[in-house]
Amino acid sequence: MKKEKSTTVIIFLFKCIPLALRRLLFRGLFRLFYHISARQRLITLHNLRRAFPEKDLREIIRIAKGAYRHLGLVAADFFEIPFINRDNVHKWVTFEGLEHIDATFAKGKGLLSIVAHFGNWEMMTVAFPMVRQPMNIIYRPLDSPVLENLTAWVRTLNGNTVIPKGGSGKTITRLLGENKALGILSDQNVSVREGVFVDFFGRPACTAVGLAVLAMRTGAPVIPAFMPRMPDGTYRFIIQAPVPIDDTGDYEKDLFTNTQRFTKVIEAMVRRYPDQWFWLHQRWKTKPCQRE
């Protein structure tokens, strides 16, 4: 109760700041962060330089600054999420590809969704239940208790459930058997024991295999879902067709192939909107040499 009360107080205080002013404030804070945090800035610039070798330094810096600006806008809009409902959601979000969701649920095997730290991934959690059904969100708990409580509270609005990674296999299998939807963030670096190395922007990136394991084990379709920010400040909820799943009987080979496909879907979307992905993250931190 105490945690929920403190969370609602934080939401209320920031909501009291007019949206235009709040966006200006957070853009300024993230611009300042870009300049004073040399480590994160260098990680961002290095990641972009390696991902887009064809771009000159001026363009790389422009994208990097745009990524920080985007994070500022997402942070500012975060405090609007609890107040989005079925009556006003259309002012924030347009939907594309809902027919893929309906076709997937018609199969009765549940739905696995590829989600990335891209666009406004937090707003996706409240928008989806307004047009279809609540989601079950598989995630890694944040290190900050304040941010963890804040994001968990927002994510569970509209009937969503959050499921921490690890030890959740039986729960996830049961939910898919009940034809439920599960969203899994699939763009973070993991340790060697948790993933396989697949190509991401031309470099080997250690990527979690959990999504591929679930798809192969349960037969649940895998749907990519993204919410990029549009030039007018609204968001487009893009739902794509299911990703083909290999299940040839060669388990290790199929794990790699399917995980590579999921990762390439994310890469294709990031290439469309390069300033809306979380370039600050050390996505390529785990190295192939660590397999030894």
Descriptive notes:
With 292 residues, the protein is an alpha/beta fold. The protein contains eleven helices and nine strands. It folds into two domains: 1-79, no CATH class; 88-279, no CATH class. It has a seven-stranded mixed sheet with strand order 1-9-8-2-5-3-4, with helices on both faces. A two-stranded antiparallel sheet has the order 6-7. It is globular and about 55 Å long. The relative contact order is 0.16.
Strand content: 15-25%
The first-to-last residue Cα distance is: 48 Å
Report the radius of gyration as a whole number of Å. 19 Å
Number of domains: 2
**Helices and strands, in N-to-C order?**
HHHHHEHEHEHEHEEEHEEH
**Number of alpha- plus pi-helical segments:** 11
Order of strands across the main sheet:
1-9-8-2-5-3-4
Low-confidence stretches: none
* Nearest-integer average pLDDT: 93
Helix content: 40-55%
Count the beta strands: 9
Silhouette: globular
**Main sheet summary:** 7 strands, mixed
Backbone structural class: alpha/beta
